[in-house]
Amino acid sequence: MIEDIFDCVSPLDFRYYGRNEKLFSLLWSFVSERAYVKYQARVEAALVRVLAKRGVCSKQVASEIEGACSRIEVSDVYREEDRIRHNIRALVNCIRSDPAVSEEAKRFIHLTLTSFDVLDTASALRFKEATSQVIIPTLLDLEKSFIKIALREKDTIQIGRTHGQHSIPLTFGFAMAEYVSRLGNRILAIRKAGNNLVGKISGAVGNYNASSLFFDDPEEFEREVLHELGLEPADYSTQIVEPEYLVDYVHALVSCFGVLANFADDMRHLQRTEISEVAEEFKVKDQVGSSTMPHKRNPINFENVKSMWKVFMPRMTTIYMDQISEHQRDLTNSASLRFVPEILVGLVVSAFRLKKVCQKLIVDKKAIERNFEMSKKRIIAEPAYILLASKGHPNAHECIRKLTVQSLKEGRPLRDLIIESEELKPYLAKLTNKQQAILDDPSQYLGIASKKTEQVCAYWKQKLGI
Amino acid sequence: MIEDIFDCVSPLDFRYYGRNEKLFSLLWSFVSERAYVKYQARVEAALVRVLAKRGVCSKQVASEIEGACSRIEVSDVYREEDRIRHNIRALVNCIRSDPAVSEEAKRFIHLTLTSFDVLDTASALRFKEATSQVIIPTLLDLEKSFIKIALREKDTIQIGRTHGQHSIPLTFGFAMAEYVSRLGNRILAIRKAGNNLVGKISGAVGNYNASSLFFDDPEEFEREVLHELGLEPADYSTQIVEPEYLVDYVHALVSCFGVLANFADDMRHLQRTEISEVAEEFKVKDQVGSSTMPHKRNPINFENVKSMWKVFMPRMTTIYMDQISEHQRDLTNSASLRFVPEILVGLVVSAFRLKKVCQKLIVDKKAIERNFEMSKKRIIAEPAYILLASKGHPNAHECIRKLTVQSLKEGRPLRDLIIESEELKPYLAKLTNKQQAILDDPSQYLGIASKKTEQVCAYWKQKLGI
Amino acid sequence: MIEDIFDCVSPLDFRYYGRNEKLFSLLWSFVSERAYVKYQARVEAALVRVLAKRGVCSKQVASEIEGACSRIEVSDVYREEDRIRHNIRALVNCIRSDPAVSEEAKRFIHLTLTSFDVLDTASALRFKEATSQVIIPTLLDLEKSFIKIALREKDTIQIGRTHGQHSIPLTFGFAMAEYVSRLGNRILAIRKAGNNLVGKISGAVGNYNASSLFFDDPEEFEREVLHELGLEPADYSTQIVEPEYLVDYVHALVSCFGVLANFADDMRHLQRTEISEVAEEFKVKDQVGSSTMPHKRNPINFENVKSMWKVFMPRMTTIYMDQISEHQRDLTNSASLRFVPEILVGLVVSAFRLKKVCQKLIVDKKAIERNFEMSKKRIIAEPAYILLASKGHPNAHECIRKLTVQSLKEGRPLRDLIIESEELKPYLAKLTNKQQAILDDPSQYLGIASKKTEQVCAYWKQKLGI
Amino acid sequence: MIEDIFDCVSPLDFRYYGRNEKLFSLLWSFVSERAYVKYQARVEAALVRVLAKRGVCSKQVASEIEGACSRIEVSDVYREEDRIRHNIRALVNCIRSDPAVSEEAKRFIHLTLTSFDVLDTASALRFKEATSQVIIPTLLDLEKSFIKIALREKDTIQIGRTHGQHSIPLTFGFAMAEYVSRLGNRILAIRKAGNNLVGKISGAVGNYNASSLFFDDPEEFEREVLHELGLEPADYSTQIVEPEYLVDYVHALVSCFGVLANFADDMRHLQRTEISEVAEEFKVKDQVGSSTMPHKRNPINFENVKSMWKVFMPRMTTIYMDQISEHQRDLTNSASLRFVPEILVGLVVSAFRLKKVCQKLIVDKKAIERNFEMSKKRIIAEPAYILLASKGHPNAHECIRKLTVQSLKEGRPLRDLIIESEELKPYLAKLTNKQQAILDDPSQYLGIASKKTEQVCAYWKQKLGI
Q1: Complex confidence, ipTM
Q2: D83–B284: do the CB atoms touch at under 8 Å?
Q3: CB contact, 8 Å: D366 with chain A?
Q4: Any CB–CB contact under 8 A between D448 and chain C?
């Protein structure tokens, strides 16, 4: 038995469990082994409550067992499992041996259940509750940080970048609105998939063999037990719940992680020395940037999030493989299911990290302006070509392409070459004032960046109730 | 240029394209390169229709361009691309050079669009239409086959199997109902994700720079163009549509593939020589089972489906990686996007194959009965222990476990040992007739297998309208 | 800070760390965080030893620092890291603050190193040593178990199975020899890849900037430091070692895991109720097979191994993604590298589990014989067709195929139909005695199963020195 | 049957098959279906040659069959397969029906073989030959391009980059040497794994049942047949060759692809507008950079390579899953094996593309210098701290860190602050001239960049014989 956290192999437990944050102790209260066993005991307790309601056992019996369930100690269950080699039977034995459980009560424990009625239901329940109590709130906090930056910077003109090349203008707030929208969308997806997690009380192969011994309405009985826990039953189950509920849920988590990773990558690159439009704030006055290069300001949090995505995204493959279970179930998804909580941890740890960084994200407006200036002169290629075409030029794209090449060669502004061109004069004369203004000042070539930013933020604030 | 199909490297094209099936020529009309270019031309045509409606160009101009779009030849576009190295500009040039396009019309082609307005919209459209016209119908056909078998075999008593071990009874129809339910659920997921695919007409970096030169309501303009095609716009776009629409769509496909693979695995194992409860029918009288073992009846179609799942499931990883695109887009998702149609093909080919096999699936009821008989005697362990517990036995599970061990050792039926046991007599006396009957005839220990099968089938028939 | 192992999320630490086995405490002494920090301190110690050898610092200084390195406490390093936010600088500070380190000595700690000189070297070293001291010995133990079964069962006639269908005969020992061969091959691959792991002392971007300040032969200096640890330097390094050494190493582990998973699957299926040729022995007299089905004997260990493979195989994707690091390094492989030790754990835990099961694997010869009898009569199809062809029959395959169909229809032995056939008589007359014997007794159609088994076992015993 | 290449779904065939390159027609001659069938026929031909050598059939017979094998038409085989539903039996029938094959000869075709003797051997052979004739030569060409750039730029001072931040100096040639080394290493890995591919002639379940009917030395017989083809036999085989040979081979390909992807990413980022140290040359005077932004120079080839890596890297997961095949084989690796040649194509297409770009890679030395100048002043932080420490300063790292912060705040060169510091004077006085020179001119802080570049290039030129 490992006794010191630093004797562990999992960095989640000894390293990414943030030591000073309540969030993590809350999260671990759903994902730890202690939590899992407690949730299993909650299922056993729900069962006896319904048995009592239905008159199968007395209220006294139910009360005794419920009490025992609430006192279950994971270490006792493990000790018993070491002896008999069966985890749920070990749990049952521990409940049985609680001094408050009378002889009369013992036989009602676990009555009609199969192990995976307990385990699958407990898993669904803890994932569902971790989702609503930790994952969604953490993501909402991050979303708020995104929205705050987006609105604050909605008019900060920035050069757009495609292929890593300067493209045409937008605003930094508009660029942030991408993440407001994508994260908002994923929050809804996770919320939905989390709420969609279901339990089962349908017995060893799913056709309610055992519960049918007692009840004519075993599906109704199943529903009652699960409702005690706030869950719905699966449409169909074998020994286990149909895997697609979990598959959709983990997909929602993993695809949300992809959004975080993309954001982290964008920020990493905007923090490059040559670009330096954003920066992570150093946390403490004693922080060391690099062991031998003290001048460096490294995007360590963004790097960490990208790295964690690389750790957790591939785990979806395990989940997809676990869709396949022979007949009424092989057990080859048993050990692998035990690693699913780690995926929740990876996402929360990363979202929380991003939130902290975003709350103090340094946006260097001078650098944004400086970079914009680099390409300002060439930006007008696009509006020029489009406007010329609209005014009747038969081959505007090719014409502007050639002038651009000339502009690069001669080092002269594209705008000047356009104005001087005899060929283009008749078309230029037809431009409206607003159109002319954009050719004169490309920083006005912004489309509806600011307005769209506001719209996106307002939409998600309303939609998510934040 | 490759000229003969057998000079190709992709088995999808030379091998899995079923030669005598209309379904495949229909499917390829969405996924081929020819199809892709046609869809791109449809987007260009939709654009000019809206330009005409808004009075930017004349109806005559729109009509000329639409005509040219409908005549686009993929080989011409490729030839032009070879020359100028840009696929969408090549398309535009081909439309321009159509003899029916007047000089006046030329300049309105592609006006305000960026390449990925065309490409992302065309991709969404062809995936959406392939979904509704090929994928969903093929899966519904398969679902019908599943339902037919499930209802036909709803009372065929079969031994349940967990861990590959005989467990407790169910019916073969109930086992099939698992796939009715899971496939039904995935059909809904695919339908929803397919309908959710969106387009974009928002320009090079997503803030409508170009269309804003002409319109005060560029988002409305985008909506009009997309509505011409039956699409909605993305909530937000950069140069490309937010990736999560596609990510969810491919997830729906891949997770559906997992259901097919699981079914295929179940059938493969039920077709094992020792089990032989089901068999694929041999297709033709000349079919060769094995080049050197002519007596073998191999589950080649089920094996093929499992194999194809192994090919296509990992491709989800590509899709997840493509969620990450720097700033307003890097182009590292360009080549990879071209492989997405293959995933649609993989799923349709496999679903179609399963449907064909299921329509003629041989179910050997004698074998099912023979296998059931093997374990009939030991089945009562579960109901016995549960009933004894319910009648007051304080430790029924342990008691029955010991009798089972004794039964195996002595080779005597468990039922006899139970009846002979002095310890158990008082509890047995309390059993109801129905409960007693199950101990006497374990094949009655079926729960609600038959009823649940009917329910599941009725539910999905109604839900899917089949 | 997590204080109780059951408050952890990683099942590796609280569950798969086998509580009563020395092997696991040994393994964790390489993979735990405590171990990692100790290895880092070993690198710092190696540095000062070489500095002293080269006269840069005194032997006294080196001795003081080495002493401090050997006393490093991981919890102190973490506390310091919490303060200054840099793990290696924290380590250096802890060494500095050791009371035995004199003022004079302090400045030599870490001299010329960059953080990843320490971290990459420490990682390589602990993986290399874990490989030789734990992974290889565990796999060799498993290999010995495989060999033992193979040799013991080399003449146990078993029906071969392809497509899950009975094929032609082999022996169970020959089937086991597959795993002797494949595991042997992977042991060599792991041993080689483990020995191939390298370190680096080449500074922040790999061109020995810092060490060149002191030495004219910085590559020789690097070699000396690494030789202190038993490592070779990378051919080339940036801030980090070329990733392919680790990529090859993890590939070796993961591909070995695939062999274990295949073996586990084979055994799972041979343990199916209908086949029941092998079985896991129940571990203790109190073991519970199923919470509600006490008669079941489940292949839980084989299932566990398959499940663990599903957990760990996909992690190769992380490793492949970590091959990509921008320029002289981005840090997006930093967190992910911390999860690599878990892969070693997964493999060892699974190999150890298999070894334990194999040592007591129950092989039911009667069942093997029973299953063989099922198909005995049809086996001769293959040798018959081949022999007839060799004796001059122009179309033997087709002829036997038809007789096989007839045999199935009429329920008569294929052998009788062959003998009765007028068409075949002239060819049968030409058979040698040995050939005739095989048609009479298909269980002699064994090729060189027994001899090949011996060969394979002898080869690997010699090759691996076991 | 698809008749036009643009009706295909696979972009490999209609798009990435470079139309004007001999390389691609050569590559496809190994990977196409036509090629596969030809290789299968080569195995059948090798068989009869050995049968004749051993006197089983006459030389005349062997010659007739060999002739027929050389004339096999893939379309004929497919037509026959459509009829009898078995691909290898279809091949055999086609050989049989060749007019030059006499009645006497017919019965020796395929004698003793099982289908996968032919298929696995043919696969191994075509992968092996594609490797030596296409893959390795293409990679060697790329390696030469890398070496050429590395040597040319070995003294081009460039700022090193870690975390995307300017770090300390190196040379561009040294940065290129990373890829010389990593690619060189992968070329060796691929060559080795390619040469390691093996065949098998061991029959339906691997114990030489059929060949033992004729030969006392069936393993020798196998060796002879395979030697005809230039292959070695597998150590052990079931119906198929042990999968690890192929697993190692595809791993070598995929891990090589990772090196190309990393190189492509580095170049993409160096081509960013703000950095612009390198650029892809535009291919033709008519090339269009962007449909609406004609001024852009996009790294489309580097993007393509990264994108292709995202397509092909995940396919390793399929290969790992195919390690698992039940008993003497299930056939769930049959379809998936057909997709393996695509991986070869992906790698060759990408390596060839990179080679073309590298041959004309534009290196902008002014931009490299300009970027270096940005950080020149702060570079000395690292050498300063190290030198001060070595000269006796007790806490140099912390001291320089503080001066760096001061330098950033006050906008003054770090070097001036160091020189002015009273605290540091005694240590500075001890510096050697060479050490002093580096503090004065950080561009001399290059370590052995140039020399190491030469070494690495020389090593790989010699090692690879280029």
Answers
A1: 0.95
A2: yes
A3: no
A4: yes
